[in-house]
Specification:
A four-stranded antiparallel β-sheet has the order 1-2-3-4, covered by helices on one side. It has two domains: 23-76; 78-162 and 182-227, Nucleosome assembly protein (Arylsulfatase, C-terminal domain), CATH 3.30.1120. It has helices at 21-74, 80-87, 97-103, 184-189, 198-209, 213-217, 220-227, and strands spanning 106-113, 120-127, 137-144, 150-154, 165-166, 169-170, 179-180. By secondary structure, the protein is α+β, with helices and mostly antiparallel strands.
Length: 228
């Protein structure tokens, strides 16, 4: 400023000429003390995570009979899960016309978490006997290893003859051409989703639809559409 020569401050590293051995040792001592404190904090954090998980396990057990009662009531409501899926702003995009017919036979949604609550969870769809597949239960499992890498497992759907949905194509016996659309059941059968939304759908089922399906069922527009 004002033509004055800019002054530069030189940082003297420990051991360089002009550096004070005493100052260097003080820095080393301070870093060592800081590391001890940081290790203490990490130990407390690890204990907190463990205790939070233990509390969550306890309350998961308390929730089980409540979820069972909820399933009993849902079972008395026609097309409950179909409406809940269709009215969801994201899931509804993945429900094709053929999926709608299948979801009419869905009787419950379940979420099973790993015992340690950290290494994964399973999404389970239960169905009444239907003309589409032999399975009474469809399960998709997400597993995380110690470093957080994800692996996905699912049992192939045992489609009845002429009723299979593969890669978004519905191959119905006698059809002139395959039915093509995004399909929820295509996603459920695959461990990789081409546009990267595989985790989004799983997280919606786990964190949104499973905890409170009533919120989506009560979407007036879709309820009237199905019942009227």
């Amino acid at each position: 400023m004002g033509g004055a020569e800019e002054k530069k401050v030189k940082v003297v590293e420990p051991g360089e000429e002009g550096g004070s051995p005493k100052a260097s040792q003080e820095l080393v001592d301070s870093i060592e003390k800081l590391q001890v404190i940081q290790d203490e904090l990490e130990a407390i954090n690890a204990k907190a995570i463990y205790e939070v998980l233990e509390v969550e396990k306890k309350f998961n057990e308390l929730r089980k009979p409540v979820f069972s009662r909820r399933n009993e009531v849902i079972g008395s409501i026609r097309d409950f899960w179909l409406i809940a899926f269709l009215s969801h702003p994201v899931l509804g995009e993945f429900v094709s016309k053929e999926d709608e017919k299948i979801l009419k036979h869905m009787v419950s949604l379940e979420l099973e978490e790993a015992k340690d609550l950290k290494s994964g969870y399973s999404i389970i769809l239960n169905f009444s006997p239907n003309p589409y597949f032999e399975d009474k239960k469809l399960t998709k499992t997400y597993c995380f290893d110690e470093v957080g890498d994800l692996s996905i497992m699912c049992e192939p759907i045992k489609w009845k003859e002429g009723k299979g949905i593969t890669d978004g194509d519905r191959h119905e016996k006698g059809a002139k051409r395959p039915y093509t659309s995004e399909s929820f059941f295509t996603w459920f059968s695959e461990v990789v989703w081409s546009d990267g939304r595989v985790d989004e759908i799983a997280e919606i089922l786990r964190d949104d639809l499973w905890p409170n399906p009533l919120r989506h069922f009560q979407n007036v527009r879709f309820t009237l559409l199905i019942y009227c």
